[in-house]
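1st attempt posting a full record on here, be nice pls
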Amino acid sequence: MRELIWSPRAYVEFTDTYQYCFDEFGEKTADKFEQQVLRVIEMVLDKPRIGLRRDEQDEQRKFVVNKYNVFYYTFTEDTLTIESLFDGRQDPSKAPGVKG
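the predicted structure (as tokens):
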């Protein structure tokens, strides 16, 4: 199985989103968010080509976690690196790989 690596950006985005869910909606909602992310990670670790690429030359892929969050990642035979856990309610120009 591939080694899972969280980029500093992705880790901060995950913990910030979890904390936001906890503060605004309670522990049950925060835990649901966490479980959604973990399910996506398990799926992508098993089948890393499941995510969409922006184009054929782009190695970064994305996978929708829920209606608000998109998971960006790269992978090799040995690793899966979570690059970002982007909240779609943000300015789209802040998404990974967007030039602007």
